[in-house]
From TrEMBL:
GO molecular function: metal ion binding; molybdopterin molybdotransferase activity
Example of a GO cellular component annotation carried by this entry: cytosol
Biased composition annotated in UniProt, kind: Basic and acidic residues: 1-11
Pfam families the UniProt entry points to: MoCF_biosynth, MoeA_C, MoeA_N
Gene3D superfamilies xrefs: MoaB/Mog-like domain, MoeA, C-terminal, domain IV, Molybdopterin biosynthesis moea protein, domain 2, Molybdopterin biosynthesis moea protein, domain 3
Family: Belongs to the MoeA family.
Species whose genome carries this gene: Ellagibacter isourolithinifaciens
Occurrences of domain MoaB/Mog (ranges): 275-412
Protein name: Molybdopterin molybdenumtransferase
Biased composition (Basic residues): 19-54
Lineage: Bacteria, Bacillati, Actinomycetota, Coriobacteriia, Eggerthellales
SMART domains for the chain: MoCF_biosynth
Record region (Disordered): 1-65
PANTHER family the UniProt entry points to: GEPHYRIN, MOLYBDOPTERIN BIOSYNTHESIS PROTEIN
Length: 500
């Protein structure tokens, strides 16, 4: 019979196996515990057994075990049976030290849409407005509907370069224009120009030959149309006409229309402030030559640019080491300054991964884990009425979290929905697999071969730099689904927007 692995079970719950007594399965269970924690648990093993078998629901005799019932337990711990409540109390100092309690729970993990909805449904953004000059409004989001303050053109103007004439002169057919005089029988009228009110039509200059004596000649086949070649008053915009709606992101064209409508400055929603806290003992600042065991903190460069593209402002904190007290202080400061808090790193089960635990301690809502890879160890919290997100440290995982989660929160702040990317069918050159229970967020390299779009994952063994440089497409593969090479699938082209 194959030996069972009981390393994750407390020693008093582990079943006996062939050839093993109490000491053997106790030591197997303790394999992954710090030494001091093993000693403490072994010392109180008998009281644990008494609490479980004789006094379920009552305090155990051990002083340490008694404290398990004196301290209220939160979240999932509140529903634990008594012997597990005792273990929770005894191991709390070690869990705080090692970060080992933030395990990935697939049963309680959320899908990407569920995660975004869980935060947005519990969040009421506190929006403020300000007025900015129209020249500096690119990318800002309007706080109110904007209507034209006047009509344009104010009076009819020429729609073409040509000459302005009286339609009454053409009532009985083409007049003799050879003896016409400028200023009496016609007037110069260029595109957008006003011209004397006695004239009501414009003939394009392409149909006019100016004579040396000042007259002009029209083609024999020319057909005159009354009021042709003009723009009527208000044809550009009517006074009171809606120019742009509240919630619109201002583009160069919208800025020009608003300026034409009389808006020299516009009311906009103040940019959401996003606090970004990079964490990790191994991190050094941009511009520092890394030594052994160090990594350059570059996610702030990437995320700041992403935030600015979406109309948000980053409040960047300095690198915070993996020290609980300093991490907690940084989170509290960030919550006091920002609308959204992003804690980068320390979201998984490393020996110094505290950040999700720190958020959970402060949260009115908390969830850990997303059913998608890369980037599954994401902590989601509402603290003081604000979203606080713990995203993984690796660049690709952080970029994916920004793409679907943080960008979704920024749009929710503005009351907007995401603009879909351009999607195209592509032939897979390599298989794609969704892991059991996990959606696969596949970054792809797409290219055309004989007019047919092909796509494949970035090759195994490529550097991060190659991955970032070459990847230009994306596909979300549902959990458990396998897409074979040669199969045609729909992919999203990165850095595109489908305006259809």
């Amino acid at each position: 019979m194959a030996r069972q692995d009981h390393r994750r079970e407390p020693f008093w719950e582990a079943p006996r196996v062939r050839g093993g007594g109490r000491r053997s399965y106790r030591m197997r269970a303790a394999t992954r515990r710090p030494r001091a924690q093993r000693q403490l648990l072994q010392h109180h093993r008998r009281p644990f057994a008494r609490a479980h078998s004789r006094r379920a629901g009552e305090q155990a005799r051990s002083p340490c075990a008694s404290r398990a019932f004196e301290q209220p337990l939160r979240g999932r711990d509140a529903a634990l049976p008594n012997h597990r409540r005792i273990e929770t109390a005894l191991t709390a100092p070690f869990r705080q030290k090692t970060g080992a309690s933030m395990k990935f729970d697939i049963e309680n993990a959320l899908s990407r849409p569920e995660a975004l909805e869980a935060i947005i449904s519990r969040w009421t953004p506190q929006r403020e407005t300000e007025t900015v000059p129209i020249e500096r409004s690119l990318g800002r989001v309007l706080a109110q509907d904007c209507h034209a303050q006047h009509s344009l053109p104010v009076h009819r103007t020429s729609a073409v370069d040509g000459i302005a004439v009286r339609s009454s002169d053409f009532e009985e057919g083409a007049p003799n224009t050879a003896l016409w005089k400028r200023g009496e029988d016609f007037a110069q009228a260029d595109t957008g120009d006003d011209f004397p009110d006695e004239f009501d039509s414009v003939i394009a200059i392409e149909n006019v030959t100016l004579n040396e004596n000042g007259g002009l000649t029209l083609p024999a086949a020319y057909e005159f149309k009354k009021e042709s070649g003009i723009k009527r008053a208000g044809s550009f915009m009517q006074e009171g006409e809606l120019l742009s709606r509240a919630g619109d992101t201002l583009t160069p064209k919208l800025m020009a229309i608003l300026a034409a409508g009389g808006w020299s400055s516009v009311p906009v929603i103040c940019k959401p402030k996003i606090a970004y806290i990079p964490t990790g003992n191994e991190l050094v600042s941009v511009g520092t030559a890394p030594s052994r065991g160090q990594n350059i903190q570059t996610n702030s460069v990437m995320l700041r640019a992403c935030f600015e593209q979406l109309g948000a402002e980053m409040i960047e904190f300095g690198i915070v080491p993996d020290v609980r007290e300093q991490l907690g202080a940084a989170i509290d400061e960030a919550l006091s300054k920002a609308d959204i808090v992003i804690v980068n790193g320390g979201s998984s089960r490393g020996s110094e991964d505290y950040n999700s635990e720190l958020l959970e301690e402060r949260a009115t809502y908390f969830s850990h884990g997303i059913k998608a890879v890369p980037g599954r160890p994401i902590g989601l919290a509402i603290v003081n009425g604000k979203p606080a997100i713990n995203v993984p440290g690796p660049m690709i995982a952080a970029a994916l979290a920004q793409d679907w989660l943080i960008s979704g929160l920024i749009r929710a702040f503005y009351g907007q929905t995401a603009a879909p990317r351009v999607k195209r069918p592509a032939v897979l050159d390599a298989p794609l697999r969704g892991r059991p229970s996990f959606e696969h967020l596949a970054r792809l390299v797409a290219h055309e071969v004989d007019g047919v779009l092909h796509a494949a994952p970035a090759p195994n063994g490529c550097t991060l730099a190659q991955n970032i440089r070459e990847v230009n497409a994306f596909a979300a593969v549902p959990a458990g689904v396998k897409l074979e090479a040669g199969q045609t699938v729909e992919i999203e082209l990165l850095d595109t927007v489908d305006w259809a």
